[in-house]
Design brief:
single chain; mainly alpha; globular
Length: about 160
């Protein structure tokens, strides 16, 4: 299904291509080709892989993607905190004591913290890479487009579940 938004036009940059049949990372050995198939990347990841300049890669992979991921992590933390597992022998009126941490919530808190670090590093890198206003404009356009791709992909996945 075509997306309803347009990729930002950046002067002096190419779109890049990804060869879905390449054996990168496998050493060129085709022995597992029949037993191991890899799905094509989703729209956001395909877009990330196509970024060619340093600013585009930082803006998409270290700013846009983490911003989208932080929203997901926050929602998952909230979900797992509110749906903590209650032992089978506990009446349904009791809740898990606040001192007990749900392992899934804890995992996503750790992921949230790591993702925040990536975002901070990306923003810091952009301050060193963006030397003129047009660099910042390009970085903002790429990060914004990455977030929109992630949101559209999520919306489409949810719509497909109903």
């Amino acid at each position: 299904m075509p997306l309803a938004l347009e990729e930002p036009i950046l002067t002096g940059t190419g779109t890049g291509t990804t060869d879905s049949n390449s054996n990168s990372g496998t050493g060129g050995d085709d022995t597992n080709a029949e037993t191991h198939t890899q799905d094509a990347p989703g729209p956001m990841h395909a877009y990330l892989r196509g970024r060619e300049t340093t600013i585009q890669r930082i803006a998409s992979g270290m700013v846009g993607r983490p911003l989208a991921s932080l929203q997901t992590h926050a929602r998952l933390i909230s979900y797992f905190e509110s749906h903590s597992e209650i032992p089978d022998n506990t009446p349904h009126t009791e809740t898990v004591p606040e001192t007990q941490d749900n392992p899934a919530a804890s995992l996503f808190r750790d992921l949230f913290d790591e993702t925040e670090d990536v975002l901070d590093n990306g923003l810091e890198l952009l301050t060193t890479q963006c030397t003129v206003e047009s660099d910042w404009d390009a970085a903002i356009a790429v990060a914004t487009y990455t977030i929109r791709l992630a949101a559209d992909d999520t919306r489409d996945a949810l719509a497909g579940m109903s």
